[in-house]
Amino acid sequence: MDDSFALASPSYAAMDRPESIDLSHHLSHLAKSRIASPLKGMYKYFQRPGMLMLAGGLPPPELFPFETISATSLQRNSFKTTQVGFGQWLWNWFAGLAGKTDEWTIRKWEEEKDKIQLSSALQYGAFCFHRCTGDWEKRMTAVLPKNGARALLRTLKSLPRAGTAAGLPALARFIYEFTSHVYRPGTSDFRTVINAGSTDAWGKIVTTLCNPGDGVLAEEWTYPSALATAWPNGIKPVPLPMDGKGMTPEGMDELLANWNPDEHEGMPRPRLLYTIPVCQNPTGATMSLERKKRIYEIAVKYDVIIVEDDPYYFLQTGEYEHDEALRAAARPKVTESDDEFLKSLVPSYLNIDYQGRVVRIDTFSKTICPGSRLGWTTCNPIFAERLERANESSTQSASGFAQALVGKLLAEEWGLTGYLRWLKGIKAQYRDRRNTLVDALLDISHASLDARKTSNGTYEFWTRGSGSLSEKGTMRSEKGAVELRKRRILSFVAPQGGMFVWLRVHFASHPEYNSKPTTDLLGALWEDLAEHNVLVAPGTMFSARTFGPGDAAPGFAQADEHLAVTEDGDGFFRMSFSSATPEQMKEAAKIIGDRVTKFFKD
Amino acid sequence: MDDSFALASPSYAAMDRPESIDLSHHLSHLAKSRIASPLKGMYKYFQRPGMLMLAGGLPPPELFPFETISATSLQRNSFKTTQVGFGQWLWNWFAGLAGKTDEWTIRKWEEEKDKIQLSSALQYGAFCFHRCTGDWEKRMTAVLPKNGARALLRTLKSLPRAGTAAGLPALARFIYEFTSHVYRPGTSDFRTVINAGSTDAWGKIVTTLCNPGDGVLAEEWTYPSALATAWPNGIKPVPLPMDGKGMTPEGMDELLANWNPDEHEGMPRPRLLYTIPVCQNPTGATMSLERKKRIYEIAVKYDVIIVEDDPYYFLQTGEYEHDEALRAAARPKVTESDDEFLKSLVPSYLNIDYQGRVVRIDTFSKTICPGSRLGWTTCNPIFAERLERANESSTQSASGFAQALVGKLLAEEWGLTGYLRWLKGIKAQYRDRRNTLVDALLDISHASLDARKTSNGTYEFWTRGSGSLSEKGTMRSEKGAVELRKRRILSFVAPQGGMFVWLRVHFASHPEYNSKPTTDLLGALWEDLAEHNVLVAPGTMFSARTFGPGDAAPGFAQADEHLAVTEDGDGFFRMSFSSATPEQMKEAAKIIGDRVTKFFKD
Question: Does the keyword Magnesium apply (chains A, B) (predicted)?
Fold first, then answer.
């Protein structure tokens, strides 16, 4: 990992950044009553040479059946960064580039103690020590019940310096350096905690910061599993209005300014925001730095903790450009430098955080593989310490197999620059995938619908002039007789990367809009598409407004689900371009154009 | 896995076993309000040929950097089952037996769909379908809030048959067959759920079955991390009395019969028992089948759910025999058959469970490696379904790396008979380790203490006759003048395997017993041992009686810790024989004998 340290920008390292402020009043009752593992207090004796260790309960590594684990891994530059469209998608494979692999082995025992080895990686969680500054130990005494704090401090003081973090040391170091270099957090005392994947991390964060009866601010359309994790703990979502660029600062400010618990069944003003700021799931919206800054200031104003769940950060591929000539012109001619690459990504909330009120969730699911069940949380040291306690009494650390294999690949094979090169290739792959699906959708116009781009970057699909007049005056254009014969049926904002297109269906244009519940129309169209072999995710499933036990499973039949469409009668489908082939996407877009046209025919 | 099926006893398979009874009234509020992942409802379309899948958010396996993962694994017969003491401990290595390894590879893609492959193992949790009978779906409707049940049933009905279980299909099948064959559960509709290790499994079980304010019955000396997991959820331990053979049926019956919430700060009569019945942590006690049966009947009587945490099950090595000739005679001459091996292990609570009120926790931590963070829970289908929901919104399934590597080794390399052979070798290893430590402890007598075995199987250490009279009349023997000059200082019951010896220190024999708090004496002796390079675990840390935030970290200084010794002034040290070398154990025993003698000198 020598190259990593060379990369770390000296200007950032030397920057005078503030320490996090005391935010311990956000800790939940549950978090405060977490107990440090009693065995931890003996660690001071663990390092002592000649110590006869009869205290633990560790099985001997001689009895682990794994002597070595090896992998053949794709080379870091397996995927081109300069590819020209999907025609070139498999180019690397034919050119023998992507097929090139490295082979490496993790042994049970290594001479060098620091090297990743199975004897420790597959043992009970190794402990490692991060740099970490600040007087947060002192602060803990004010936070925890008297005895707990005393015990905690005793434990902490017996450790080399200020805090432990479970996990494989080599991987933990890599993660800390990566976070420092790539996100450049605004506080000096941030910490990184390895976890067993984003969903588990979020479950621990929300129960560490919220009590039953509290609410979580969330984008009005959001990742339902995040809400499902909070719900059983008595923590309900409080939806925030969005536009094509994500949640709006105005919406958040207004909601918090006018919060009255009596209007929310006694729920106090929410202190936690759950947000997916980049290539949002499900809407695909990416928030600008400016908007993030405004939202951060609102969080400061109302003392809100921002949880930034950011799995698609490195899938930010930039604006969609339909015109082939313009698209080619915007495409990089050579692989961008690390600095160029990082500058092309909207800064994380971590970067603008000068108080330590941002909790960032990172995962290897989209950049390495979901099966790693491995990621990390970055936050202030007080929250980090409580999250480590939560890990100790549940998942302990993440799987040693995952930590060893991902750790070896990143920390000992690729290093920071190597991993950044890999991420550039991944980003280019998703750029081509995004382009393919959006291209294919716009080609619907070749069939039976007219497409056009509006000034706010939205693509719209209208019925052809040949159709009869709309039933509803509301849809009439002011421009003239010809346009009057058209109805707007679909629209979407082309996403700046990620995995999803959020297709808006304007049910108000449907002939039966006034005679049928809109959710019935949405359900009927979804089922019609599925029966014609196109499976998309119905938008109802992502609604923070209607979330609850009744909303489980596709659930078009719920009584209150009419809320999962907009006031204007718009419903949504989430379409993924992450795993289908180009041919499948084109075929799906064609079927959608065909079925939607038929569905809206009056 | 062909051999596995051949092994499955036909008599057991054909046995007419009852279905589990309805125990859904045990579900906690939290468990009842868990929500099925909304995406699950679309699964019926997932299997359809030709479906264009744009619904999910899966990264394409082409972008996983791992093309193959290989391992060299020790052969199943690497460890002898017939070894003669620790002198032979490394025999296999010299003979080249243990060094023999198999090599195998998991590829990203395999022709055979059923074979373990990285493209699916490293993807978001594969779903698989177990056999499972019973009308438990119907029962769910009575349990869950109306809408939740409806949604759940809809989901379940869209699946091939009765329930899903997250995890790699090959591993999940192996685990189900292993459970069926090895434990022979008494109910026909038991299910197995893969989890991310025992601690995480227990956390989910206790919050699925207990509400805040509830209590958990636990052995008075127990695994503190289990209590630390329950505690922050407002669930407190209720200690049960033990003797040398584990918790006593009488103690449990008496406690439950006379339960008065007013005497327990309003806590209702506990409905959950957490027990480690085999080679218990920390006491090493192993419960007999007869005692298990009596405890099970008490559980039936008071409607208690038994959670059996059983990590040491395959480390049951049988009674300790000090006499070398007798020990050699008892030792197997050839490797025991699978039936002989399984019959040598005390049956699991699962086996005697005819109502489905046993929840068994299994782990690969002691038999494969702790770093797998992989295990499984066996229980009735209603509990299993709720535990799967808990997994979905947290760890999802266990790490795909761990599932693939352990799954491949067990299901595709070793099979059931191969794994049983491996377990026989592990058991023999722990037998030799146990013998080594107990032998070494008894050799203390060569130094300055006298050892003797009492009729109840306890070994005791007494001061030599040369010491002066005990200060306390209570310790005087009735046998005569010579014995009067002796004081009993240490004692222990030789464990039937596992990892631990529970050393009892009779502080009442200490000259300063009346002038100093007993915990101070315990602390002073522990620190003296540590300063002389022997690290053992102080028994205070395993006390369910004094557990709480104040008890974190070694904690000899807590005001109420005098409770962590018995009424007779006995304190405890837990000594582990799992990972030290024979030389280290002998050296440690020598130091203990030496220091204890000095410590008790008056």
Answer: no
Size of interface A-B (CB pairs under 8 A): 425
Which ipTM was obtained for this model? 0.88
pLDDT digits (tens, 9 = 90+) for A365-379: 999 999 999 999 999
Arithmetic mean of pLDDT, A493-508? 96
> Rounded mean pLDDT of B337-360?
97
CB atoms near residue B13 (< 10 Å): 11
Could you tell me the two tokens for B580? Answer: 């030290």
Could you tell me if residue A512 is inside a domain?
yes
Same domain, B371 and B494: no
What DSSP string describes A106-132?
Answer: EES--SSTTS--HHHHTSS--EE----
User: Quick one: tokens of B343?
Assistant: 């019959």
The minimum CA-CA distance between B39 and chain A, rounded to whole Å, is: 6
Q: What percent of chain B has pLDDT over 70?
A: 80
Distance between CA atoms of residues B314 and B421, nearest Å: 11
| Number of domains chain B is built from | 2
Judged by DSSP in three states, A560 sits in coil
Q: Which domain holds residue A574?
A: 432-465+484-600
CB contact at 8 A, A417 and A338: yes
Q: Distance, in angstroms, between B106 CA and closest chain A CA?
A: 9
Q: Which residues of A touch B229 (CB under 8 A)?
A: 393-394
Q: Give yes or no: residues A349 and A439 share one domain.
A: no
- Are B459 and B364 found together in one domain? no
A565-590: pLDDT as tens digits:
888 899 999 999 999 999 999 999 99
Q: What is the pLDDT of residue A464?
A: 78
Contact B71 A71 (CB under 8 A): no
Say yes or no: B374 and B447 in one domain. Answer: no
> What's the confidence (pLDDT) of residue B553?
37
* Interval A394-407 mean pLDDT: 91
Instruction: Say yes or no for a CB contact (<8 Å) between B395 and A535.
Output: no
Contacts of A61 in chain B (CB under 8 A): 369
The Cα of B298 is separated from the nearest Cα of chain A by a number of Å equal to: 30
